[in-house]
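WP5 quarterly update. Target: DNA-binding protein. Source organism: Kiloniella spongiae. Length: 182 aa.
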Amino acid sequence: MTPVSLIAQAIQRERTRAKMSLSALASQAGVAKSTLSQLEGGQGNPSLETLWAIASALNIPLSFLFETPKSDFRIIRADEEDQLSSDLSGLSSTLLADCPKSCRRDFYRVYLKSGSVREAAAHTQSTVEHAFICRGKVRLGPEDNLQELSEGDYFRYPADVKHSYEALSDKAMLVLIMENPG
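Structure tokens (predicted):
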């Protein structure tokens, strides 16, 4: 995907989310409607000032205009993470998933015992689960994309389809975050 097509999709996506017409956004951003139409069509070479004006009119951070669509699936293995470290203390952190606008998240600590499989029915449309394995080894996810995860691994997957959880070790513990559209 080229930067121009990425920006084109983002402007259209954010304008639709804001429920603004092309004319209204162009007027509020101080940009010609024809210019905005060209940008949404993947034409032109927008200046930083034009993009700032569009982002400001949409009331979004400029970075939203450069975001790539996220995959429904994401795995972060414990040894693959990018950490941000503090210069002043021994703290380091890894952003596993940011919270989309207009959603709710419920956090669960889940214990699993070896030998049993928890089959979960599909949740409401657009529900996503985030699983972080704290202890043991687990097989989980949608039926068509079950993954084996170990301590420290992270997996994001759609939960609006049938999915399951199974301990592959004697005992397992995970943090499960259920994200529902607002």
